[in-house]
């Protein structure tokens, strides 16, 4: 009889769940934040400061030979290569940033399901994206050559921001900086932090590719209070047709226009 009880106990222990011998780590630093946006005003303030940072547009770093006044996505040197029917983007997650893994993989899966982009763990590729927990949310634009960094610091571990920053890494620019933006958006520079007003500059028309109508809901579009002197009272952008402008961290993924843009950018 005792051996039947032992077999029953062993079978129960082998059921799917936590593997035998594993323990649940109760260290809060190991827990991934809620993936679909800040839950409190304080958390949102941290996120706002993280993405609306000191880089151009708040979160973009350009190749050394790329003039930001002419920035766009036309130059094919900055595209990732195609391989066996998809666009292959090698990546690593920094050893000190393993807490980001779940939300990063969730963001990548959105690309895998809806676009030709495939993020693959790096083996020995020369060109790759290193994802780490740096100061703020930011990414280098397009394929730069060699190792290029993508930061998801404090306040950035949300699916919408992961998809947004990965968009920069594959070569996407901000929707609200399109050359035709002013046909659709009112910008209130008087409400913008004075030293951040340059972040509403427009892309040079001769160096951009526009594949779709203006998309207020694009994952690459900032919200109504971007860079505001008073982010709970002074709008910096407003759609002329009254369409709400939602922050990227409040979004869960692509619009259809985003998908079309990525496919056409990579000629699919």
From TrEMBL:
- Which Gene Ontology BP terms does the record give? proteolysis
Q: What's the record's note on cofactor binding?
A: Binds 1 zinc ion per subunit.
Keyword list, A-Z: Hydrolase, Metal-binding, Metalloprotease, Protease, Signal, Zinc
Question: Any idea of its EC number?
Answer: 3.4.24.-
**Domain Peptidase M12A stretches:** 71-268
Report the GO molecular function annotations: metalloendopeptidase activity; zinc ion binding
Keyword Zinc set for record: yes
Q: Which residues bind Zn(2+)?
A: 164, 168, 174
Signal peptide (UniProt feature, chain positions):
1-21
* Enzyme class, first EC level, given as a word: hydrolase
Q: What does this protein do?
A: Zinc metalloprotease. Provoques deadhesion of endothelial cells from cell cultures, and also degradation of fibronectin, fibrinogen and gelatin in vitro. Its role in the venom is not fully understood but it might act as a spreading factor that facilitates diffusion of other venom toxins. Alternatively, it might be involved in the proteolytic processing of other venom toxins or it might play a role in extra-oral digestion of prey.
Subunit comment for this entry? Monomer.
Designated name of the protein: Metalloendopeptidase
- List the source organism: Caerostris darwini
């Amino acid at each position: 009889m005792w051996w039947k009880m032992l077999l029953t106990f062993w079978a129960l222990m082998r059921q799917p769940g936590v593997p035998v011998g594993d323990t649940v780590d109760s260290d809060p630093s190991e827990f991934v934040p809620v993936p679909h946006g800040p839950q409190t005003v304080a958390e949102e303030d941290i996120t706002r400061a993280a993405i609306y940072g000191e880089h151009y547009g708040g979160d973009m770093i350009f190749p050394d030979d790329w003039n930001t006044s002419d920035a766009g996505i036309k130059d094919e040197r900055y595209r990732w290569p195609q391989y066996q029917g998809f666009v292959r983007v090698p990546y690593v997650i920094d050893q000190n940033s393993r807490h980001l893994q779940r939300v990063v993989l969730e963001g990548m899966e959105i690309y895998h399901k809806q676009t030709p982009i495939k993020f693959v763990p790096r083996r020995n590729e020369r060109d790759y994206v290193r994802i780490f927990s740096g100061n703020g949310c930011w990414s280098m634009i397009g394929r730069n050559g060699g190792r290029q960094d993508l930061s998801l610091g404090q306040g950035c571990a949300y699916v919408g921001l992961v998809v947004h920053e990965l968009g920069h890494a594959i070569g996407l620019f901000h929707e609200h900086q399109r050359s035709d933006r002013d046909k659709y958006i009112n910008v209130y520079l008087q409400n913008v932090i004075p030293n951040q007003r340059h972040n509403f500059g427009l892309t040079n028309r001769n160096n951009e590719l526009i594949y779709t109508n203006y998309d207020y809901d694009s994952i690459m579009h900032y919200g109504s209070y971007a860079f505001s002197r008073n982010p709970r009272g002074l709008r910096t952008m407003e759609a002329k047709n009254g369409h709400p402008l939602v922050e990227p961290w409040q979004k869960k993924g692509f619009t259809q226009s985003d998908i079309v843009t990525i496919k056409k950018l990579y000629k699919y």
